[in-house]
Amino acid sequence: MKSLLVTLCACLGLIFTAAADGNEKSITVENRANNLSDQMIRELRLNNYQSNKVREINLDVVAKMMAVETQYAGNQELIDQKCKAICAERDVKLENVLSTVQYNDYFGDRKYYSNYDKEFVAKGGQPADNSIASATTGETTAVN
Fold first, then answer.
1. Is residue 33 part of a domain?
2. Which residues contact 90 (CB under 8 A, 6 or more apart)?
3. Which positions make up the signal peptide (predicted)?
């Protein structure tokens, strides 16, 4: 009886450990979109209205990108092509939300936002460096 109880506890422990490991490594659409949105909000100094709109836009964009990544897994060229089209749609939407100065800053840093998002995914959902400006200049910037 004792051995049965010990075996049962060991099996349950393995099951819960495997489930916990799987949950930590999975990146949700919301996590990925919020990470990118938070970075954009800090770097572009968005107001509350703009922040909410950028979150909506990024949630939609990231959902589409993750669907493409899942659907075309293994064909990186096609994934890049489709994601580029999705990002072009985001650019149009952001142009209507951001000021001219903010949009110019965003447009010039699109490559860095893309790399920031890719780094977030590569790290398994762990936030990357907090400053895109540091990637371009090699310096760190304080965000107030």
1. yes
2. 57, 58, 61
3. 1-20
